[in-house]
Amino acid sequence: MVSIDTEEIAPTGYAITHSRRALVSRVISSSIFAKSERLSSFLSCVCELTLNGRAHEINEQKIGTLVFGRPEDYDSSIDGIVRTQASRLRQRLDLYFNGEGADEPIRIVLPRGSYVPLFERRLPAEAIPDLPLIPAENPPLLPPTKLGTIENTGRSARLPWILVTILSIAILAILIRNREVSSRGSSPIAPHPLWSLLFLPDQSTIVVPGDSALVIWQGLMKKNVGLADYLSGNYRKTRSGTDATVSQASAVELGSRRYTSIVDLDIARALSHFGDLRKSSVELRYARDVRPNDLKQGNVVLIGAPEANPWVELFEPNMNFVFSNERSREIYSVLNRKPVGTESAKWDSQYNDPLHRVYGVVAFLPNLSGKGNVLILEGTSMAGTECAWDFVADDSVLLPFLNQIMRANGTIPYFQIVLATSNMNGSSVKSNILAWRVTN
Known about the structure:
Blueprint: E1 3-7, H1 14-28, H2 37-51, H3 60-66, H4 81-97, E2 106-109, E3 118-123, H5 154-178, H6 195-198, E4 204-208, H7 212-221, H8 227-232, H9 246-255, H10 262-277, E5 281-284, E6 299-303, E7 321-326, E8 331-336, E9 346-350, E10 357-366, E11 373-379, H11 382-393, H12 395-405, E12 414-424, E13 427-428, E14 432-439
Parallel strand pairs: 4-5, 4-6, 6-11
Antiparallel strand pairs: 1-3, 2-3, 7-8, 8-9, 10-11, 10-12, 12-13, 12-14
Keywords: Membrane, Transmembrane, Transmembrane helix
Protein name: Adenylate cyclase
Transmembrane segments: 159-176
């Protein structure tokens, strides 16, 4: 354990500046940052401005322009890319300085509410007196996937869901407004081997976030819901009789709500921006409002595994990597239908895994009519879904893979990938490819 003595960064001499630049270099070269070019660029940008005595110039607008390629006049109140990535940057910095960089004498901190980094001198652990442990006022939060144990009732139990509903509605409103923003004044963007296939000029791409209420229902009832039952809505009907448990009664109430995760909405927001850049538009659909014909017309992005987005089931007959949830054993797996060589037949993600291993799948497939494309981003948890998104959103890892599978004529075939990552407080850290397939 270390304590922190905070000091404002000031370039007081070449030696100090040089040592701090070296620290930044070590951080972005670490395994925590190695596969995240965006976060590395973010950290390098704000640290370099500060070390050059230009900390007063650092703001959300400037970072959005310099790091994320936004136009100088972009509306940061709609496009929250900087705020989202700043939160992830803080998490990665914590992981580095509590792990690989635990012996660093100086720590880089990005204070909440600010984008100006601080270098903090860390005191050795022996200099800190032992403090008595203070019991937490609140019990520890249950893992989000172990929903069957939630038994809270009354107004206090409903409050979090009310807040989630309000937050989801607010973010959905922002996304709907954002998709109307015209990109006609932006500079032409170079073709991209994947995004140019999903976002066509003057055409809409449907984006379908996961149904978190469905995930909650299945967790409380300890049952899986297939696409047929999802479409009929029978699973949401009130349980008859007087033997319903508190969890089952809560499931009935929550099953009819419209919840989705912040991870899914962040992905939808980013996809909307990709569409704007290519003079395309994003049509946001709640999973419960989608119909089979929607998956036959044009391009679609499905976010979430079948547990959250049952529409993925329609594409599983043509997929080699599919999901399986053994609720009785609390194991969520990615199945490898036809292993090749030394590949595993499945990859298990256990709810109580001390290593926090989770998995993501990216699948780029033809739509149901064969006349459009579908991108599926799914995971064994929210962190797994985020891992799938991080892979396709980061050209430093996506493009080398696409170049590897690219046809001689410069086009890419349909593909599927399994990724492994670690779940740290609901976010994915670093990932690696476990297996992949291509189909022509």
